[in-house]
Request: fold
Amino acid sequence: MTQRLVEKPEGYFEIEPRPTPDDLAAYYRDKYFVADHGKNPYAHGYTDEELKHKRLQPAETEWVWGRPPGRLLEVGVGEGFTLDYFLRRGWEASGLDFTDDGLQAFFPELSDRLVLGDAFALLDEVIARGETWDLVVCNNVLEHVIDPMGLLDRLRAIVAPQGMVRISVPNDGSWLQDQIVRRGLADPQFWLAPPDHLNYFNTDSLPRAMAAHGWEVVEHLGEFPIDIFLLNPDTGYMRDRARGRPCHFARIAFEMGLWKDRSLEAVVEFRRGCARAGIGRNQTVYARRAAGTR
Reply:
C-alpha cells in the first residue's frame, strides 16, 4: 500500500493511510516479542559515557523546572533512566508504558512504579479520576501514536494548573535535511520511518501544534544536530550505516564535555540556539497550560 505525507492544520505531517489501532498493537508486539525470539530488545550494552549521558535529559528537565520536587508522571518510560533520576531526587514519580522490557533490563526494582497498557486508555482513566501531576514527561512518544493531537489534549488535562509538560520528538522535515537531499547526500525524505514514526514535526510545526491545542511553550530546545555529519561524504551514515556509531559517540562526547567542562546552563543555551536555528536531531518543548484552558 502506497503511503504519503499529509500536512495537518497544525502544520505537522502525518503518514496516510493510518494503521488501525489493532494493526499498530500487533506491529509492536511483533517488534518486542517475535523479531527478537523472546529476547529483550533493550539487552544491549552501553558504554560508561553513554550511561552518564542518559542522565543529561532528566538533569536538563530538572533545571528547566527550577522548583522543588513534586509529582511526576512519565508517559513512555522506556528504559527507566528518567524515572530513576527523579525518584532519587525526591520526586513522587510513576509512569505508563506499553511494555516493561526496557525497565526490566535496567531498573527492574522500579516495576511497581509502572502501569502497563494503552496510553490513551490509561490517560482517560486518570482524567476520569481527576488526577493531576506537576510535571509530565513524554519523550519520543508523540511521533508514534495514531492520534498525536488527542494525546496533547489528554496531557493538558492531567497537568496541574502551575505544572509543566516536556514533549520530545524528532526534528524531521528540517531545512538541514532538505540541504542534505539537495546536495545528493541522502535519498529524498530519508527521515521517514513508518510504521514506527507516523507523525513528523520540525522546529516550526511543533510549537504551532502545541499552541493549537492549548499549550504555552516556555522553552524550546534542539539536541545536537547529528545529521550535520551527513553533509560530509566521509561521515555519511545514511549511505554507510557503519559510520553512524562513531558519529553518535562524537555527539555524546560533545554534549558530555559541554555539560561537565562548562555547565548544565551551557548545554541549555546551546540547545536553545539549535532550536532557534531550526536544527537538532531531536527537539524538546517545555510548556504549560495556556491561560483559560483546562
The chain is about 40% helix and 20% strand. The mean pLDDT is 94. Strands lie at 4-7, 13-16, 71-75, 92-97, 114-116, 133-139, 159-170, 199-200, 215-222, 282-289. The longest strand covers residues 159-170.
